[in-house]
Amino acid sequence: MYKILKAEQLTANIFLMDVEAPRVARHCEPGQFVIVKMDEKGERIPLTICDYDREAGTITIVFQPVGASTTKMKELKAGDYFRDFTGPLGNASELVEEDIEELKKKKILFVGGGVGAAPVYPQVKWLHEHGVDADVIIGSKTKDMLILEKEMEAVSGNYYPCTDDGSYGHAGMVTTMVEELVEKGNKYDVCIAIGPMIMMKFVCLLTKKLEIPIVVSMNPIMVDGTGMCGACRLHVGDEIKFACVDGPEFDGHLVNFDEAMKRQQMYKTQEGRAMLKLQEGDTHHGGCGQCGGDE
Fold this sequence. Notes:
Elements: E1 2-11, E2 14-20, H1 22-27, E3 33-37, E4 45-53, E5 58-63, H2 68-73, E6 81-82, E7 84-89, H3 94-97, H4 100-103, E8 108-113, H5 117-129, E9 135-140, H6 149-155, E10 158-163, E11 170-171, H7 174-183, E12 190-194, H8 197-210, E13 214-217, E14 233-236, E15 239-242, H9 243-246, E16 249-251, H10 257-266, H11 270-280
Parallel strand pairs: 8-9, 8-12, 9-10, 10-11, 12-13
Antiparallel strand pairs: 1-2, 1-6, 2-5, 3-4, 3-7, 4-5, 13-16, 14-15
Helix pairs in contact: 7-8, 8-10
């Protein structure tokens, strides 16, 4: 059992929890995720790690209720427990693997949308702790829907909030903020985008035009988190990959977003899942990432 130490409502529909999970906290890195289950019969819910404290043995998760399980999960309070809290899963951010001195020479841009600010934060924090300050753009529909502002400002080189309605920060989409920064002479070596699928698609289209390499996190399409359900199957260039076992991060310019978004919609119905399994045959499942789906 994994104790919830803090449960906080960040916005009208975004929630944060600190969970006691010392083994996960000891080994996790930015970019990875956990799978939580509320009880023995509960659904497996993959959630990106928003923050971690190795000394305290805690993991911070942020989630937005979208289905029955996450809607039920938002009712949990401090002192309640998760039945399972499995992780760290997935691959760590590529930035963690790079040489620090080489990273310090790079100009890095993060673009987050909505709850995507949560998985952006640990990467920006990790860079800051290693002497690298990145520029961060976070977008939401309104000011009230922005999350982790104080935390992000504390670790960013420059922080640029954007609101669709113009009520706060930059008025407009995150893509127009990217264009503005580049027009002002900023030359970025890499962009990392995490957020809704449609946002990542358009950031990728823009960065391709601007010739900026981009990494995207495909965690929004994960369901089971082990590759067995086939939900997060996607084409990256000519290869079939699974977000949970091969990612969640990929070269955004190679991801087929239109296909991924269509599959995401089809996967919501039993008929759609059956059709996908029929169409995709042996490549429908990813398993361990070393069989079937990779062939």
